[in-house]
């Protein structure tokens, strides 16, 4: 059991999980202090400010651990602050979508279990995706995607109601009638393919969007991306196949192609890539897998859910 006091930076998204993160914040704070840890509040008026504070703290030695409370967006912040440092990431998975935590076998919506992970002191190193750019958030832990799913995510994020998976499903129904297949050029480890597709995603983890198993064989510690491409299908066929993504059965469809690799260059026009549920940057882009780029508090097993 890890009992020695630590300086722990804490960032919380108060709106995550329909306010669950905000409700849990006092309990997390009290639990850390009861264990003798010094808590450094790194929250800011915006996610950008919070990231800058967290990044500075992890790189100047002012904290020993970074703790984030929220969904995949907060994990994305933590990943970009802790990547390639000695500061481990502690995740309180309290969002609507907690896919990265689920891939790491971290308990979801249970801040007491998160504190128990801290007590146990067990950390693991996992891979991260790195977008070759000088932007402030070049790292991602879960899935990078650019296509119909990114367009749907953008629409869903502009809605305040409904919440959770239903909001995403309704956004699919709204976007699908006007969506046109996108011409892509995809280069994986030097092999280039041109195609028209509904979407292309680069996965370090199995799932995104609150449990959609888009790359069911992906692992966060195997040194490889799983690249998934969905070729153009009719609207009726898309709606028929879409529900299968929650079990991973979509990979058997002839329009779905999976390839594994370490470096992916994605070319398209007029598409913004998203990663870990956050808008990232316009395509084209290049992403590389970086093995053992992050230390994270997690149980022993890191196999895919």
Automatic annotation (TrEMBL):
SMART domains: DAGKc (SM00046)
Keyword hit for Lipid biosynthesis: yes
Top-rank taxon: Bacteria
PROSITE patterns linked: DAGK
MF (Gene Ontology): kinase activity
Cofactors, names only: Mg(2+)
Record-annotated DAGKc domain positions: 3-135
InterPro entries from the UniProt entry: ATP-NAD_kinase_N, Diacylglycerol/lipid_kinase, Diacylglycerol_kinase_cat_dom, Lipid_Phosphate_FormReg, NAD/diacylglycerol_kinase_sf, YegS/DAGK_C
Keyword Acyltransferase: no
PANTHER family assigned to the protein according to its UniProt record, in alphabetical order: LIPID KINASE YEGS, SPHINGOSINE KINASE
UniProt name for this protein: Diacylglycerol kinase
Organism: Nostocoides vanveenii
Lineage: Bacteria, Bacillati, Actinomycetota, Actinomycetes, Micrococcales
């Amino acid at each position: 059991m890890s009992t020695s006091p630590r300086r722990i930076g804490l960032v919380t998204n108060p709106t995550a999980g329909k306010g669950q993160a905000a409700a849990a914040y006092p309990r997390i704070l009290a639990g850390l202090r009861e264990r003798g840890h010094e808590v450094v509040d790194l929250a800011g008026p915006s996610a950008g400010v919070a990231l800058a504070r967290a990044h500075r703290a992890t790189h100047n030695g002012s904290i020993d651990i970074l703790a984030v409370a929220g969904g995949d967006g907060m994990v994305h912040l933590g990943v970009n602050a802790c990547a390639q440092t000695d500061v481990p990431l502690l995740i309180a998975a309290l969002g609507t979508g907690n896919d990265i935590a689920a891939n790491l076998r971290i308990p979801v919506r249970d801040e007491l279990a998160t504190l128990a992970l801290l007590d146990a002191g067990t950390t693991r190193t996992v891979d991260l995706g790195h977008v070759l750019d000088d932007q402030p958030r070049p790292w991602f832990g879960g899935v990078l995607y650019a296509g119909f799913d990114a367009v749907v995510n953008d629409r869903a994020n502009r809605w305040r109601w409904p919440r959770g998976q239903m909001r995403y499903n309704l956004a699919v129904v709204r976007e699908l009638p006007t969506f046109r297949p996108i011409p892509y050029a995809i280069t994986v480890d030097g092999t280039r393919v041109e195609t028209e597709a509904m979407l292309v995603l680069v996965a370090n983890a199995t799932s995104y969007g609150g449990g959609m198993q888009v790359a069911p064989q992906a692992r966060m510690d195997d040194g490889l991306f799983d690249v998934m491409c969905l070729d153009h299908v009719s609207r009726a066929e898309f709606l028929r196949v879409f529900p299968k993504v929650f079990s991973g059965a979509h990979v058997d469809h002839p329009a779905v192609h999976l390839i594994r690799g370490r470096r992916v260059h994605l070319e398209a026009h007029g598409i913004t890539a998203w990663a870990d549920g956050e808008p990232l940057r316009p395509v084209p882009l290049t992403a590389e897998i970086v093995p053992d780029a992050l230390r994270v508090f997690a149980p022993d097993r890191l196999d895919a859910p």
